[in-house]
Amino acid sequence: HNKYTNAYIALMAAVEESKQNGTATSNAKNVKRPNILITGTPGVGKTSLASALCEETDFHLVDVNEIIKTQQFHEGTDKDRDCLIVDEDKLMDYVEESIINDGKNGGHIFDTHLCGGFDGAWFDLVIVLRCSNTQLFDRLKERKYSSKKIQENVEAEIMQIIYDEALETFDKKIVIQLQNDTSEQQESNIEQIKQWMAQFIHNQQNDDDSKTNNKSQKVNSKQ
C-alpha cells in the first residue's frame, strides 16, 4: 500500500528538485506528467475522488462543470431533464487552449460526467467510476434530485452509457473501470491510480534519459 505512495512521492520530489535547481543533468523537470479524466454517471463519487487525488499528488483539478458555469459555455437549462444545455464546441476549444496546451507538460485531473466531446489524444488515462444501483439511488436522493432525474441516472449506470462512450472516444487500452461504492473502495482506487501515475512518470523519465543518451552518443560519434 505504502510503497506506491512512497514511489510517487520520491518521483515527484525529483521532479520538483530539478525544477528548482534547473539541473541540466536531470531531465525530471521536462518529464511529462499524465493528464487523467475521471468520469462516470452523476453520483458515482468523481468529485470526491478527484479532489482527494489532487490533494495527495499536487496535480491540478479541472472541474469541468465549474468551467461551463463560470465561462457560460451553455445555452440555458433543459427544463425537461433539469440540466444545462452545454455548448461543447466552446467548452472543448477552451479546454484545449487554456488547459491541455498550457505549457505545463500535463499534470491535470479532469472531473466530469461529459466524456464523448473530448479529443482522444488529450488523456493518458480515463477512469470510469462505477457504483451499485442502490448506492447511486441513495446518493442522488440525498442531492434532492427529482424522481425522474434519479431514474434517468440509475438507468444510465445500469446500461453503462458513459463506459461505452469512453470506449468509443478513447483508445480502449487507457480506459479502466473502478468500483466506487464505499470510502474503502475510494481509498483503494486512489492508491491504484497513484501507483499508475508513479509508473507513468518513471517510464517518461526512462524514455527521456535514453533519448539524452542517444543524443550524446551521436555527438561523441561525430567527434
Notes on the protein architecture:
By secondary structure, the protein is an alpha/beta fold. Helix content is 55%, strand content 14%. It has helices spanning 2-21, 46-57, 64-70, 88-100, 133-142, 147-158, 161-169, 183-222, and strands at residues 36-39, 60-63, 74-78, 83-86, 108-111, 125-130, 175-179. α1 crosses α8. The protein is globular and about 65 Å long. Mean pLDDT is 86; it is low at 23-27.
Which helices and strands occur, and which strands form pairs?
Blueprint: H1 2-21, E1 36-39, H2 46-57, E2 60-63, H3 64-70, E3 74-78, E4 83-86, H4 88-100, E5 108-111, E6 125-130, H5 133-142, H6 147-158, H7 161-169, E7 175-179, H8 183-222
How much strand content do the residues show?
Answer: 5-15%
First-last Cα distance: 49 Å
**What's the helix-strand series?**
HEHEHEEHEEHHHEH
Number of strands: 7
- Uncertain spans, ≥5 residues at pLDDT below 50? 23-27
Shape: globular
Q: Compute the gyration radius: what is it?
A: 20 Å
| Strand adjacency order, main sheet | 2-5-1-6-7
Structural class designation: alpha/beta
For the residues shown, what is the average pLDDT? 86
Question: Into which percent range does the helicity of residues fall?
Answer: 55-70%
What would you say about this model in short?
This protein is α/β, with parallel strands linked by helices and 223 residues long.
